[in-house]
Amino acid sequence: MDEIDDFERLTERIRTHSHEASGSDTERVTMRSFDEVSDESLRELLEALDGEDVDPGACAFYLSPTNAERALEGADVEDVGGLEDRLGRRIEVEESMPDDTVLFMDPDAIEDGEIVAAHAIACGTVAASD
Q: What are the distances in angstroms from CA 96 to CA 8, 55, 63?
């Protein structure tokens, strides 16, 4: 995957891809909705790709700084490194990630800003909070 500068644009593309995919032979991004970001919701997103033809070791979570803090609040761990250990997956905290989205994906699912492996992307939408 090339370095992603604009996660807002990428997440919009991912959401559009999942909604506009037509026909059963079209790969779709896996979507989940969450009321909050927690270690449990992250685990649910991780499990959403279980059974897909995806290298589990290559996948990572992509969170905004706000969502990283939210995930840590109830996780009983001190920092993102502890949460990575608990989930068994890398966590990337990205400034340009929108607060209403969490991604769990194989970075190679994106090339030149385009989705090339929708089956290797799980997108969690997060309910608006105050």
A: 6, 25, 9
pTM of the model: 0.88
What's the chain's average pLDDT? Answer: 86
Residues 6 or more apart from 81 whose CB is under 8 A from it?
none
Strand pairing report for 90-93 and 60-63: parallel
Residue 9 CA to residue 68 CA, distance in Å, equals 20
Left if phi > 0, otherwise alpha if psi is -120 to 50, otherwise beta: which for 77? Answer: beta
Contact 52, 119 (CB under 8 A): yes
pLDDT score at 113:
80
Q: How far is CA 15 from CA 73, 81, 95, 102, 111, in A?
A: 27, 28, 19, 11, 17
